[in-house]
Amino acid sequence: MKPDRPQHSAPATADEMRALRPVICYPPETLPQPDRTTMKALRGEASQTGKIVIAPRDAGCIEVPAGAFFRISSVDGPQVGDLNLWNAHDLTERFYSGKTRALHGTHLSTGDHMWSSFPAMRPMATIVDDTLDWYGFDAFGGSVHDVIGTRCDPYTGRLLSGDDYHYCCHSNLTRALAAHTGLPLHEAEAHVHDVLNVFMCTGFTRDTGQYFMKASPVRPGDYLELFAEIDLLVGLSACPGGDCSSEHSSDTAACYPLEITVWDPGESARNTHQVPQMNPYSGNHGVG
Ligand SMILES: [Zn+2]
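^ thats the input. predicted complex w/ zinc ion below
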């Protein structure tokens, strides 16, 4: 946080510097655009082939093949979810929240990609429908589906409260990934990463730049639907914060289940989808 009383005096040109207009770092027009026509055709042929219900304060994993869709739905009551994505064949390729934020902004919606980590750095999934797109940004600068938070975890909780709490999203995702893959818990934990905060309403305070949350506007029936650009392993935690209106990392908030359904147009239709190639950067890093 910035100091109330800075220790260094401002230069004479301070106001001039502050008045400079910002420049968008990564204009989205220069990014590869989603192939909406193909995705729409595939969605039209898709039928539901899979479903998991994630219990409150727990997580689940499900595989989604490239060219299929998955829908995260609110059921029973307002609930936020912490989403991890992995390449189903290589867990080291995983969702890169920070780069996705740099490319698409702090909060995602329809048309945005979820990008993977280096060196693959390619679209893993594309958002194709978002029933909360009406929310936009509120007067506090808050919005839904952020890529600015990390995930609630027992380590931060321990530092802040002195207690061990085991049903944070980080631990939920660790248990679910270990159960799905058969990896030991400590190996699974290393693959859990910063999330897309599905349905969560968050922002940064205008005056101090602090991360804030407020009650999610999500209602039962709302959903976020994504297209799998590559073969995916999807992990989702139903956050112990419930709608995140007051706190997380405890058992006090009202929590509800979340549902993931998989919508598959069939193998031959899926094969018409061109899986994004690994990033073509040489990997040389200036050596040799
Ligand atoms: Zn959480």
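The radius of gyration is 20 Å.
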